[in-house]
Amino acid sequence: MSRHEQLLARLEIDALNAEFAYRIDRGEPETVVDLFTANGFYARSTGEKSVGREAIRAAYRQRAAAGKRTARHIFTNLRLTHESDSRIQGQCILTLFAQDGEPPLVAEPFLVADYDDIYEREADGCWRYAQRVVTWRFVQRDGKVSPLALGSPS
Q: 34, 59 in Cβ contact below 8 A?
């Protein structure tokens, strides 16, 4: 992959992360499944994992059924390692503001987490998540952590 192609891939992956946040924050969380490969998975480092688009969709449906949530996902510090022309490892940091209810709400971080991702470019030329693994680093003092119930531990 040339330097120009690497920079273009970085822009596309940064846009993918922004789209992921936008869809969740603006009320379309079930559509994030379109950003994953068909067999992609979303997991926590503690072992809970949702494999495949339907399992990920089910996790977001369950979260939505719990009631109104206002959230803003802020992804920063993107770091990429190119494995091939169609596969890239990446890390980024999530700062999440989230509370149940309607805004305006108190601006207090809900969670700070590391994301370890594998991005794959598919036949249509789009980068998608083959995997997203979340590791919590900072949580609210009361210990409440996850608004998303991923699958059972593997």
A: no
* Residue 139 near residue 147 (C-beta atoms within 8 A): no
Number of domains in the chain: 1
Strand partners, 44: 134
Q: Which residues pair with 127 in a beta bridge?
A: 121
Contact criterion met (CB below 8 Å) for 95 and 109: yes
- Asked whether residue 148 is assigned to any structural domain, the reply reads no
- Three-state secondary structure call for residue 70: strand
CATH number at residue 98: 3.10.450.50
Residue partners of 142: CB distance under 8 A and separation at least 6: none
Q: Which residues contact 69 (CB under 8 A, 6 or more apart)?
A: 63, 98, 99, 100, 101, 147
Its domain, for residue 33, covers 3-139
Among 69, 34, 53, which residue's Cα sits nearest to residue 147? 69
pLDDT digits (tens, 9 = 90+) for 80-137: 999 999 999 999 999 999 988 899 998 889 999 999 999 999 999 999 999 999 999 9
The pTM score is 0.92
Q: Which residues contact residue 119 at a Cβ distance below 8 angstroms, ignoring those fewer than 6 apart?
A: 13, 16, 87, 88, 89, 90, 127, 128, 129, 130
